[in-house]
Amino acid sequence: MTRRRLLTTVAMVAAPLLTLAVGLLAMPRPPALSERIIGDAALAAAVRDDLVAAGQRHEAVVVSIDGDRTRFAGFGADEHTPFEIGSATKTMTGLLFQDAVERGEVAVDDRLDLCLPELADTAAGAVRLDDLATHMSGMPRLLTDPGFLADTLGRSLLGQNPYMLTADEMIRLTRAERVGETGAFAYSNLGTALLGQAIARCADMDYPTLIASRLFEPLGMTESTVPLTADDLRPIDTRGFSAQGVPQGQWAMGGHAPAGGVRSTAHDMTLFVKALLDGTAPGASAMDPRRETASGPIGWFWFTLDVDGTAITFHNGETGGFTSAMMLDRAAGRAGFVLDDTAANVDEVAYAVLTKGAAR
After folding, report:
1. Number of domains in the chain
2. pLDDT below 70 — which residues of the chain?
3. By the 8 A CB rule, do 349 and 325 touch?
4. Are 215 and 199 spatial neighbours (Cβ–Cβ below 8 Å)?
């Protein structure tokens, strides 16, 4: 795959309906990418045009890691500014799955109803955990319950958080879901959320406790959170913007948190990515390819892309007002990632950070 095809390889958006809000809200004058540079001015200059071309409108941070050299540049934001990382959360859920396997709490071929007995005697309950972790379970992208879909659409149109269900409510609605063809790739936020809730249940924890105790705390990620409801949001948890510059509501994803609910900072994501590169992150082998898709190999939620002959381990994320992307060249010990508060794809920006950030 060439760099030019990078943007069309995989779609990792958490809520594809969000763009329907355009034209339905009275739009204030959209903001512009901040001119206030924090950190490495040379790195900022190297990737600013890429951010502008991608449609970034307010604040962003970029980090380049090349061996023991780390470069940070912020556009109106610093290393401690929190961002919604969206579906990049799935990579953390994948690590938690691998870690649970290594602990002997679950096996890769266990059924979902082993940890979630409420799904016994249902099509979803018979789904295997490894099929969920590779998007090959046959689960739909979202719950198909008409009430859920209507509520999700309405909230998306208004720029509000579309994920309001608790874990128990999500699991209850899953009982009625039909399951499609197993072994065929079909990206599923629902499947990821169910896997995260299942491994948490088998560990006798809720998901925020699981990820905090087994990933955030071991890696020193003290600035990362998983808000389940609006009450869990902090004063520092800001709102973002749609691709058109419309302010969006904050997301606290309840039962769907394992699919996209983490808020993090450049400081914490640097610790995370460094631990991935050196293999010290719990469950780090989740990145290793397990299955083949039309876009390339997939591990436990991690994609491997062939970009101009280089194997890039990749994932991105999007919420109503934020996007993120991580690009890891594991063989070279290099990585680049982007966090920003505009819902516009930053895959190409992350690739620019990976390549331009390594320039001496």
Report:
1. 1
2. 1-28, 359-360
3. yes
4. no
Dihedral in degrees, nearest 10, Cα atoms 41, 43, 48, 50: 180
Give me the residue label for tokens 């609006």: 230
Containing structural domain, residue 193: 3-356
CB 101 within 8 A of CB 93: no
Residue 129 CA to residue 139 CA, distance in Å, equals 12
CA distance 63 to 346: 13
14, 315 contact by CB (below 8 A): no
CB 8 within 8 A of CB 296: no
User: What is the distance between the alpha carbons of residues 327 and 332, in angstroms, rounded to a whole number?
Assistant: 12
Task: For residue 32, give the CATH number of its domain.
Answer: 3.40.710.10
pLDDT by residue (tens digit) across 9-55? 343 333 443 444 444 444 567 789 999 999 999 999 999 999 999 99
Residue 93 · residue 106 · CB < 8 Å: no
189-202 and 167-174 helices cross at what angle (nearest 10)? 120
Query: Given the structure tokens 């249940």, which residue do they identify?
Result: 201
Q: How far is CA 79 from the centre of its chain?
A: 19
Please give the structure tokens belonging to residue 7. Answer: 């943007």
- Cα–Cα distance list, 264 to 16, 26, 324 (Å): 22, 30, 11
Q: How would you list the strands of the sheet with 323-329, edge to edge?
A: 37-39, 69-75, 60-66, 334-340, 323-329, 310-318, 303-307, 296-298, 291-293
Burial tier of 175 (Cβ tally within 10 Å: 0-12, 13-18, 19+):
middle
Q: How many CB atoms lie within 10 A of CB 8?
A: 10
Identity of residue 135: H
d(CA 46, CA 360): 12
User: Which amino acid, one-letter code, is at 22?
Assistant: V
Strand partners, 66: 69, 334
